[in-house]
Amino acid sequence: MQQITISELxxxxxxxxxxxxxxxxxxxxxxxxxxxxxxxxGYVQCVYFKGNVSDEIFDIADRIGQESSIIVTGKVKQEPxxxxxxxxxxxxxxxxxxxxxxxxxxxxxxxxxxxxxxxLWLRSKRQVAIMRVRHRVVKAIRDFFDxxxxxxxxxxxxxxxxxxxxxxxxxxxxxxxxxxYLTQSGQLYxxxxxxxLGKVYTFGPTxxxxxxxxxxxxxxxxxxxxxxxxxxxxxxxxLAEEFLEYIVQTVLKEKDExxxxxxxxxxxxxxxxxxxxxxxxxxxxxxLKKHGVDFQWGNDFGGGDETIISExxxxxxxxxxxxxxxxxxxxxxxxxxxxxxxxxxxxAPEGYGExxxxxxxxxxxxxxxxxxxxxxxxxxxxxxxxDLRRFGSVPHSGFGLGxxxxxxxxxxLEHLREAIPFPRLIYRNTP
Length: 431
Known about the structure:
Layout: E1 2-3, E2 16-29, E3 32-38, E4 43-49, H1 55-63, E5 69-78, E6 86-97, H2 111-116, H3 118-121, H4 125-147, E7 151-152, E8 158-159, E9 171-173, E10 179-182, H5 187-197, E11 199-207, E12 220-229, H6 233-254, H7 256-261, E13 278-280, H8 281-290, H9 303-310, E14 317-320, E15 333-334, E16 337-341, E17 343-348, E18 353-360, H10 365-374, H11 383-390, E19 396-402, H12 403-411
Parallel strand pairs: 1-2, 4-6, 7-11, 13-14
Antiparallel strand pairs: 2-3, 2-5, 3-4, 5-6, 8-10, 9-10, 11-12, 12-19, 14-17, 15-16, 17-18, 18-19
Helix pairs in contact: 4-6, 4-12
């Protein structure tokens, strides 16, 4: 008797096998019991005929509860109407742990109840599909950069200073050295890596203490941040659109079943191919004004503004040359017009907002010193960062992509909280 996984059933048609897993749900039809087993790799219907199994086995099939852990033995049959296209003509059933009163039943539950039980909610078919898409997005990210000669460089999570100001930082005491902060970004460290290795990327958790309750915000999320030496803003935009196309097309190709479970309309994702439209900030402002938005030039775009802008295009749109006043201190300004930063945001369609933010970095020491002073940041905390300009400075660029926003968009989710296994929100840090 072979112990296999549900995902391997197609290789064992006509053979007797043993499966280990959990009871997803069950139903009865007279003298037949239908048990749907899940094992993390898929779902399969196990059919128990009263005349074909002992009364004891039939009784077990009748009384075990949802999410009981069980061992099922039976013959693999091809069945197009069954989940996954195969079913098990079951001959044996053993209980590992009999479960009753599992709190998440097939009925509707409120979101707070589901979040309180996130450790169990993850077992649902929808959540499993989302986690599989997330896994494939992560792999696509690594495959893309590894295949283009980038070196992964891990940035510290505890940092002595802010990347973009201290107002949205989580602060903690650090022994006798005063305060440390949970990182907002690995970018500054990635810049150091780019000066050593040419092309690098950081990929890890980041933290923002924004008191925001929108569907686009988490307090803990994952970011991938490539940084490239000798690259300008146009190079940065070229890399960003190639990267985004690769991720989306890879998921469409390899996670079709998961997207079907999520009932995702993939027609708009199929449009995510280069070239992406590129518009100046001024053009984006004109779009808003044409749609009746009372928008003041010089402001950053809010979520509603981004939605209106992105709705004008059938694929992600790249908005570049933002006013320097609303961007971070390290962004280089346009030498042709100092009002603008050499920055770009990539806005996803369907109202999912900014998923990439990037820029060409300021590579001149004196200018960077001036920017740090303008932003009222302590120069002493950035001396190591300034050394990157003192010793062999070169033009360089990079961007950051938010993993959860990307997963949320690809999966068609209403809120980022489903795009990460255990979401951290302004009023939630459990389970």
